[in-house]
Write a structure and sequence with these properties.
Blueprint: E1 11-14, H1 29-40, E2 45-48, H2 53-63, E3 70-72, E4 77-81, E5 87-92, H3 97-110, E6 115-120, E7 123-126, H4 131-140, E8 145-146, H5 149-154, E9 162-166, H6 169-180, E10 187-193, E11 196-201, H7 206-216, E12 224-227
Parallel strand pairs: 1-2, 1-12, 2-3, 7-8
Antiparallel strand pairs: 3-4, 4-5, 6-7, 6-9, 9-11, 10-11
């Protein structure tokens, strides 16, 4: 192991799936020991993922880094949990409410078979737990709240950090193409799987999370380290 000197590296941002989790979704025990050494040097090791805060917290706890922020939804929400278990945001980039309302209306009108899942803070909302929501719940071990999306979006204080749109591959590919040409000027659309379309504010990205957290920890970018394994991690490098 090459030990990191604080003057060389002051902050580390790491992807989760395929990076610190193996093919069995397990953490290497050696990593847990290395993070103990990082903590002794006061070098933050921050997780960045498309996952929700609730989906990331158990991994952070296993690594012993739950006191450091989590970059959730690829950076749409950066924050941590206090001692009472309440999520405390540090940085937040929400989908614009007008675009969120338009998106939901268009999906219901033109793509009724698509499952619309809304993530706000550490909560997951949908109008019905359909086959797609059940499959996602089985993967994430989270439980969605069933409610009217229109009523949620009508609440002035309600924030949308991410949409997860799930359907057949043909439906999602067609929806992706339609959204690209629908005049959503402040939203970003990307395929996380061939039948998963995710929507965030266009300002969201792991590269932007890296910059925000480097400033938060008062660490120059030249003294940061980024770890990832896939194309969506390239911007952080």
């Amino acid at each position: 192991m090459v030990y990191l000197e604080k003057k060389q590296i002051g902050f580390i941002l790491s992807d989760i799936d395929g990076t610190i989790l193996d093919h069995k979704h397990q953490i290497d025990l050696d990593l847990i020991e290395e993070i103990k050494r990082l903590k002794q040097q006061a070098i933050p090791f921050v997780l960045a993922s498309a996952r929700s805060p609730k989906g990331m917290l158990p991994i952070a706890q296993e690594l012993g880094i739950e006191d450091w922020p989590l970059a959730c939804y690829n950076g749409a929400l950066i924050g941590g949990y206090d001692q009472k278990g309440t999520l405390v945001p540090i940085f937040s980039h929400e989908v614009k409410k007008a675009e969120a309302k338009t998106l939901v209306a268009r999906i219901k009108a033109d793509f009724p078979g698509v499952s619309i899942n809304v993530y706000s803070g550490d909560q997951w909302y949908c109008e019905r737990v359909d086959q797609w929501a059940r499959a996602e719940a089985a993967i994430t071990k989270e439980t969605p709240v069933e409610t009217s999306l229109e009523q949620l979006l009508a609440q002035e204080a309600f924030e949308v950090h991410k949409f997860l749109l799930i359907g057949t591959t043909a439906e999602i590919q067609a929806l992706h193409a339609a959204c690209q040409n629908a005049g959503f000027l402040e939203s970003a659309f990307y395929l996380s799987k061939e039948n998963y379309l995710e929507v965030t504010h266009q300002a969201v990205g792991k590269d932007k999370a890296l910059n925000e957290l480097a400033a938060y920890f008062q660490v120059p970018l030249a003294q940061t380290l980024a770890i990832g394994d896939n194309f969506n991690d390239l911007p952080i490098f």
